[in-house]
Amino acid sequence: QVQLVESGGGLVQTGGSLRLSCAASGSTFSITSHNWYRQAPGKQREFVASISRTGSTNYADSVKGRFTISRDNAKNTMYLQMNSLKPEDSAAYYCNAVGVITGQSYWGQGTQVTVAS
Question: pLDDT by residue (tens digit) across 52-72?
Fold first, then answer.
């Protein structure tokens, strides 16, 4: 069992920054990758960023160069540093973790990010 809790969302002006956190608890040893997704009203959930066990990262083209995903294993926390925010970045951001054995996905409840123009 893995529980994920996001935090750090809020209202920010265009060009501003936010740092999202995802605190994991439970069977965190079973997680093989950590990911961030986002979903805006009326749109499908989209991939934002991922970080593997080896530390390799991957980003959606829309956020590449502006967002940075990182992980602190000692704190069982994953982060998404978002810089140069745009109104298009406004969405509910979800933390996601994938189980190493079954590939089961775990999701947080989401944290809202609103970028004002």
Answer: 988 999 999 999 999 999 999
